[in-house]
Specification:
With 213 residues, this protein is α/β, with parallel strands linked by helices. The protein has one domain: 3-Layer(aba) Sandwich (Rossmann fold). The chain has helices at 14-24, 32-41, 61-70, 104-111, 131-152, 169-179; strands at residues 51-55, 75-80, 92-96, 116-121, 153-164, 180-186, 197-205. α2 (32-41) runs parallel beside α3 (61-70) and α5 packs parallel to α6 (169-179). The longest helix is centred in the middle third of the chain and has 22 residues, at 131-152. Bound molecules: S-adenosylmethionine. S-adenosylmethionine is lined by residues 28-29, 31-32, 56-62, 80-82, 98-100, 122-125, 141. It catalyses: uridine(2552) in 23S rRNA + S-adenosyl-L-methionine = 2'-O-methyluridine(2552) in 23S rRNA + S-adenosyl-L-homocysteine + H(+).
Length: 213
């Protein structure tokens, strides 16, 4: 894993500092520092040998951290509407998929049928500049990620989703609470100063209720 957030030097201008640091460390995106911080805060969420789904994974900064975290006996599946440059690690599989497409669930199952120890989403919509619209689009993507975690996540597993604060954010957090024993809101240090984004972290997925007979 990378150096701790407190190692990273202050004062700093997030763009310059994390951008340069990502470049120096051969990371595909500065966002790698965000997932690294989340994994350090919740060290049991992604262990060696885990199966992890990364939604909105291009260009692959999160994937680089996740690939190291799970190691060669794990699996990392990364999907995005944009192509992701292939990984040399055999346990990392990537695909171009739109999570909002009707056939997404079937295509994901064909890629790797789960179940997943962690479902992670860094998805973000193309921003329109209209606050309410962007918040709603962000929540739609996070809502889809939660649906996938509820359907394909292991009991005891982890959920992480980026969401733009505002709008129905609290309703979304409450929805995550229905599926996970503990819910935390995290704003990693590498988040740009003016950004409204936070990560909703669900810990210890509750076992699904048995189907009524
Ligand atoms: C902030 S970037 C992710 C950066 C990535 N975590 C990394 O570390 O390299 C957000 C991504 O969400 C993706 N995205 C947006 N809508 C999507 C959708 N409907 N299905 C899949 N990916 C989507 C975008 O294409 C974009 O690559």
């Amino acid at each position: 894993m990378l150096g701790t957030a407190s190692d990273m030097g202050k004062p700093y201008r997030p763009k310059d500092h994390y951008f340069q640091k990502a470049k120096q460390e051969g990371l595909r995106a500065r966002s790698a520092f965000k997932v690294d911080e989340i994994l350090k805060r919740f060290p049991t969420s992604v262990k060696k040998g885990a199966a992890v789904l990364d939604l909105g994974a291009a260009p692959g900064g999160f994937l680089q951290i996740l690939a190291d975290a799970v190691g060669m006996h794990g699996r990392v599946i990364g999907v995005d509407i944009s192509a992701i440059r292939p990984f040399s690690q055999k346990w990392v599989t990537t695909a171009v998929l739109d999570v909002l497409a009707d056939d997404f669930d079937a295509k994901l199952a064909a890629l790797y049928d789960g179940p997943y120890d962690a479902v992670i989403s860094d998805m973000a919509p193309k921003t329109s500049g209209i606050k309410g619209t962007d918040e709603a689009r962000s929540l739609r993507l996070a809502g889809k990620a939660l649906e996938v975690a509820a359907a394909r996540g292991k009991p005891g597993g982890t959920f992480v989703a980026k969401v733009f604060m505002g709008g129905d954010f609290e309703a979304f957090r409450d929805e995550v609470r229905k599926h996970f024993e503990e819910v935390k809101i995290v704003r990693p240090e590498a988040t740009r100063g003016a950004s409204m984004e936070v990560y909703v972290v669900g810990l210890r997925r509750r076992a699904p209720a048995p189907a009524a007979s």
